[in-house]
Amino acid sequence: MTTDIKSIxxxxxxxxxxxxxxxxxxxxxxxxxxxxxSSIHSFGSQVGAKVREARAQVAxxxxxxxxxxxxxxxxxxESDNAAILSALDLAPERREIITTAVEHPAILSxxxxxxxHKDYTIHIIPVDKQGRLDVAAYKAALSDRVAIASIxxxxxxxxxxxPVEGLxxxxxxxxxxxxTDAVQAVGxxxxxxKNSDIDMLSLSGHKLHAPKGIGALYLKRGTRFRPLIRGxxxxxxxxxxxxxxxxxxxxxxxxxxxxxxxxxxxxxVARLRDKLEQGIISQVSHAFVTGDVRNRLPNxxxxxxxxxxxxxxxxxxxxxxxxxxxxxxxxSGSLEPSHVLRAxxxxxxxxxxxxxxxxxxxxxxDEIDYVISHVPAxxxxxxxxxxxxxxxxxxxxxxxxxxx
Amino acid sequence: MWNYTDKVKDYFFDPxxxxxxxxxxxxxxxxxxxxxxxxxLMIKVDPETMVITDAKFQTFGCGSAxxxxxxxxxxxxxxxxxxxxxxxxxxIADFLGGLPPEKMHCSVMGHEALLAAIANYTGxxxxxxxxxxxxxxxxxxxxxxxxxxxxxxxxxLTSLEQLTAYTKAGGACKTCHEKLEEKLAEVNAEMVTxxxxxxxxxxxxxxxxxxxxxxxxxxxxxxxxxxxxxQPVKPGMTNLQKIMIIQxxxxxxRPHLQADGGDVELVDVDGDSVFVHLKGACSxxxxxxxxxxxxQGALMEKxxxxxxxxxxxxxxxxxx
Lengths: 404, 320
Ligand SMILES: Cc1ncc(COP(=O)(O)O)c(C=O)c1O
Hints:
Chain B: One of its GO terms (molecular function) is 2 iron, 2 sulfur cluster binding. Chain B: It comes from Insolitispirillum peregrinum. Chain B: May be involved in the formation or repair of [Fe-S] clusters present in iron-sulfur proteins. The complex is a heterodimer. By secondary structure, chain A is an alpha/beta fold. Helix content of chain A is 39%, strand content 14%. In chain A, β14 and β15 (393-394) form a beta hairpin. The two termini of chain B are 42 Å apart. Mean pLDDT of chain B is 79; it is low at 128-132, 208-235, 281-287 and 316-320. Chains A and B meet through α10 and α11 of A and α1, β1, β2, β3 and α2 of B. The site of pyridoxal-5'-phosphate has 12 residues of chain A, from α4.
């Protein structure tokens, strides 16, 4: 079908559209009920109750046992930093950290800093070519010298899921705190934290149709915690600063909605994702899906198109009204493909072209059909320009540049 | 995303002179698939007039790489070989109404391909004798002294960030930053003598530009940081013991690399420099710098002292 679709948003792992129902829920708290939740007067009388409701909504989505296990923060990055720094502060004699090669920079740059400036030893657990964690290496790194293991729930680039429940259980006998960056998983994967050994979990509002700049850190009851930000008594002294009340109320509503869409996300969104992936792969040669296809988020596909470059693909997609993203060097302003693709040792013929399509509950079948009908032509067009491509296949004679 | 000019977009979406010339008189090929961009330029030259009558390109790369390649062909067609030799990478960028600073390396790649195609046509060696192409400075992107010098002179570059934006040199593993800074300072000093730069503008070693040095883009090489941390030489370790430890550490690493279709072999040890041969899957560009760093880290851990792991073929180039 060829309606003139002008904008198709398939970059939901970068950020999502704020759900209009979320916005509606927030609006009165900007200009009517704008009071400080700590105040006694009537301008804030409903605010405290609304914040409590939001905390319960977040706890419900996570399957947390107690609402008080939720600490509101400014987002995924803050939650990640707070979790790791608290764990280190609490166990000064433990000088090691376990994490993975494919974490978000919110974890990796912090670990890099801790290594360079605070002399911590960082165990960076590698992944295989499908992006699966080397569990043997993880096991080998466990010891009572380790303060915290921080392992992401789902990878933002490939959607690959790590078996964090099991990993948390493995860490427990060593007294290691277990944290997971679940920013991409929350709202897409059903969670039941009350029955897990996960001590801390980060989530971010803007990945689940809430606004940017709001997030939460789950802290299992009994997990000791040293705040990252000190000041007033907000959040039971675990995160100071006047609450981002509108953000919190929006996040609560978004979590409530996410719970109602959980099944849709894992059936309908997954079906559309599979359709998109199959539709592209079946029409385009030398294209393959990266990551662990049997074990990943329902909304994500990351497809590498050999012998062409990712930014060029995105520019053409954008011209057709399709928003996606790429791990290619050129789009990020860095000169190398993303650390995730490199950690997976994607062959260099493909690492520069990996293109991520990330859907949401708002994605429609028409949109997917439109994308399927446009991608093959874009790929052929760029391959026709490529010195590595000849007609309908890679060039047989090796291209031998002067410097390489 | 990038702020490309309309002209860049036009030349990307609708490139002129894309394709192949069947019997080209000159071909210039630069870049590599592992580095993320590569360009083949083909030219047809009238032997009587020495005029470039046709030019076509094939490019693997981003939007500005494709646009720069196409712009290059437009610039050279109709020019004599001598005129074409005078085209600079800035001319390519200007033709397109400018490129984002981070993308200037695309115009430099075009310029390098042009020089290569002309040299291929005239039969000249690309490296003139009095002006050796020199040592490979950036192993990750294969950038040698000659290219650094051309980019610095041609574009009056005075900082390491600019040099990386124009040539990519130093943009991956960062271990070459010191060498790049030395080269930049050297060329800038020459340019000051020649009146091309004022001494205030020139880059000098040792903190004349403390602001640029503090910028996050310039990190001390990870090696330097490691080196400071590593313990002093274990007293009493003989050279032979050192070599044996290195040999043993490399043998331990090989199965891991072999599992990924690669291999590493010890070639020589010279002071703190360990020369190795990387084979197979690990010898691609950025990928090899990761492998080298891994090997280096493992060796430093075993030896308790800083070492530099260098691919043996880079030494050949350094000695040349
Ligand atoms: C896995 C992961 N962790 C952390 C973050 C950072 O979250 P925020 O943008 O809320 O700081 C993101 C989002 O970019 C992410 O994908």
